Amino acid sequence: MLHSGPVQPFYFLGNSTGPWLIKTSTAIIGAPIPEAERVTVSGGIHSPLQEENQWIFKGVVSNHRYTNRDEKESLVAVQEGLNRPQATCAAMILIKKSEAWWELPQDERRAILEQQSEHIKTGMKYLPAIARKLYHSRDLGESIDFITWFEFAPEHEKDFNALVAELRKTREWEFVEREIDIRMVKETV
Ligand code: HEM
């Protein structure tokens, strides 16, 4: 039997060599991060610390916390993966939620995320055009709680902008105390 070992974090590196060229980096809520030219996402294969990086964030892929069976099945049926050739635009959105959020019991967090804010229902409308992946950073002692990564074709950028605008108006976002929105295009050096 194979031993899977400890969970390997993904590293997100702000550098000058990565395949994703940064177009904009905007602090929507709270302090910005240092400027960088490009981004590399590294699945732990090469050591990020050997290079010069303007910033490093790390996160792990974890189990779902909120998604119910129907939602999970709907997501699996329609969502598409990362690295589609036509999806040359990416967004990396760093999120930190407040202590008030983390002090809530799980059922109340779910009620805010879905019953009150319709995060999943709203997000579903944008699939499969937008591909997404969620990384958890809070338990790794990072300064942010989540790294969210999205990929889409240039013609869907306006849809992605509409989606983030919708989410930012929700009750869930009242618990967001830091949000950095980084937009990129794929352009290998
Ligand atoms: C593309 C459409 C989207 C869909 C289908 C979607 C769906 C989901 C789902 C199903 C979860 C819950 C995962 C779980 O069960 O643990 C989730 C969590 C999350 N999503 Fe989205 N989402 C979308 C877009 C976005 C966007 C645009 C942002 C950022 C602006 C975002 C930020 C987050 C964050 C931070 C979490 C973690 C929330 C927490 O655990 O407190 N999502 N999303």
Describe the structure.
The protein has 189 residues and is of the alpha+beta class. It is 23% helix and 31% strand. The chain has a single domain, classed as Alpha-Beta Plaits (2-Layer Sandwich), CATH 3.30.70. The longest helix has 12 residues. The structure holds protoporphyrin IX containing FE. The site of protoporphyrin IX containing FE (HEM) has 21 residues, from strand 5, helix 4, strand 6, strand 7 and helix 5. Protoporphyrin IX containing FE (HEM) binds next to strand 5, helix 4, strand 6, strand 7 and helix 5.
Layout of helices and strands:
Blueprint: E1 10-15, E2 20-29, E3 38-42, E4 55-59, H1 69-78, E5 89-97, H2 99-103, H3 106-116, H4 119-124, E6 131-136, E7 146-152, H5 157-168, E8 176-186
Antiparallel strand pairs: 1-3, 1-4, 2-3, 2-8, 5-7, 5-8, 6-7
The structure holds protoporphyrin IX containing FE.
Could you list some keywords that capture this structure?
alpha+beta; 189 residues; 8-stranded antiparallel beta sheet; Alpha-Beta Plaits; globular
